[in-house]
Design goal:
It is built from 13 helices and twelve strands. It is of the alpha/beta class and 406 residues long. The chain has two domains: 250 residues, Type I PLP-dependent aspartate aminotransferase-like (Major domain) (Aspartate Aminotransferase, domain 2); 124 residues, Aspartate Aminotransferase, domain 1. The structure holds pyridoxal-5'-phosphate (PLP).
Length: 406
């Protein structure tokens, strides 16, 4: 049991701890006001979107980024690009703990999801199980870096490279986290980010698709905007289409049955000001999480996560053993102290238990993933935000450590 330093916050006050606080700052709002005060400002996707994409690409270390209206849209057009570029059908290996849109995009684009259990120390896909499930039908591995933890290993990267299987990284919960000192989101064919409110960077709603591959980039640009050829960045590629379809108005050539998932200048302006604070905020989030882990009782809760390179999204609280009574007591204590939490971590726990999959895969499919199932019932996340005070974190640890087992 760790020795917890005495806290300075009055112990009688409730912790009053939301999932997120102050994520859109006065500075961000002032930048929006500056935009709106311009003479005749352009508000639909324009130069601020382009500038945000370039600045984000530089920050991440990729050649191309495409700003969209959500992380889910990033998931969808990434899988749609995979289908357009590599053909329809086949399997995509996916995690059992992730957000619904990762699996939905696989299904909506006509691929078969093949589920893999989690590694309890990263909450990402167990890499050995991914390797065991690769077949000639595998079209991609779509991996999620959960709550700021890295889910990659060198062995996985080597095997995927040697078998030429595209890796898609969902980094929606892990902006700034690294593997071998390189940012997550730079390892695969493409990566996806979410800028929804509680995330490391927020544009209110928003997302990004990132890639180094020029074909993938151009395809995603068109898919974002109705499949329109005029969205191509390459003049040469535009001319190829125009010459191939002389009967069509060059302004309205639709290459794919696609979507409109564009964002706006307002969201991009917020993203640009947020990006200036991202590294500092990430550092604070990570410091907060390490303080939390150091002071949590390892006999009651998991504290042995692989934290190297991690960049915490939300505090991960997972009971060491399945214990329904302890779990109820934890939830009661958090509620009594007005600490907001989500059971099952970020995505609603074991996806295989969700109705949209039970209908397709059967009522017992969840049994394939016992580690994910432990998180489903005995795992939580609690908000982490840059302005969280050390005292509050220590008081939360005191509270959690004081709960007795059955
Ligand atoms: C892992 C993951 N993928 C995708 C998304 C979807 O992002 P959005 O809420 O911006 O649609 C989320 C949302 O939190 C997420 O956590």
């Amino acid at each position: 049991m760790p020795t917890t330093p005495k806290t300075a916050l009055p112990t009688t006050t409730k912790l009053s701890w939301p999932l997120m606080k102050n994520n859109i700052s006065r500075e961000d709002l002032n930048a929006v006001i500056d935009l709106l005060q311009q003479d005749d400002p352009v508000l639909t996707q324009s130069k601020n979107v382009r500038a945000f994409e370039e600045e984000w690409s530089r920050w991440l270390g990729v050649k191309h980024s495409v700003f969209v209206n959500s992380g889910s849209s990033a998931n969808l057009i990434t899988l749609a690009a995979l289908k357009e570029l590599y053909g329809e059908g086949g399997e995509v290996i996916v995690p059992s703990i992730t957000w619904v849109s990762d699996i939905a995009s696989v299904l909506q684009c006509g691929f078969k999801p093949v589920f893999v259990d989690i590694d309890p120390r990263t909450l990402g896909m167990a890499n050995d199980e991914v390797l065991a499930k690769l077949t000639s039908r595998t079209r991609a591995v779509f991996l999620t870096h959960v709550l700021g933890f890295n889910a990659l290993s060198q062995n996985l990267l080597d095997v995927l490279k040697s078998q030429r299987i595209p890796l898609i990284e969902d980094v929606c919960e892990s902006h700034g986290a690294t593997f071998e000192e390189r940012k997550l989101g730079t390892f695969g064919k493409a990566s996806n980010f979410s800028f929804y409110y509680a995330h490391h960077l927020s544009t209110i709603e928003g997302g990004m698709v990132c890639t180094d591959d020029p074909d993938f980039y151009e395809t995603v640009r068109m898919l974002r905007s109705h499949g329109m050829v005029r969205e191509l960045s390459s003049e040469g590629r535009k001319w190829d289409y125009i010459e191939e379809y002389p009967d069509l108005n060059p302004e309205f050539i639709f290459a794919f049955p696609a979507y409109n998932v564009r964002s706006t200048e307002i969201n991009a302006v917020i993203g640009r000001t947020q990006l200036r604070r991202l590294d500092e905020n990430n550092h604070r989030r990570t410091t907060n999480f390490m303080l939390f882990l150091r002071n949590l009782d390892p006999d009651l809760y998991r504290t042995d996560f692989h934290t190297e390179g991690s960049c915490n999204y939300a505090f991960t609280l997972i009971l060491r053993e399945p214990d329904t009574i302890l779990c109820e007591k934890v939830m009661a204590a958090l509620r009594a102290n007005e600490v907001e939490f989500r059971r099952g971590t970020a995505g609603g726990g074991n996806q295989l238990r969700q109705p949209y999959l039970r209908h397709r895969l059967g009522r017992d499919a969840w049994k394939q993933c016992p580690q994910a199932d432990h998180v489903h019932f005995f795992g939580f996340y609690i908000g982490n935000y840059p302005t969280l005070e050390a005292d509050r974190i220590l008081r939360l640890c005191d509270l959690l450590n004081s709960i007795t087992r059955t």
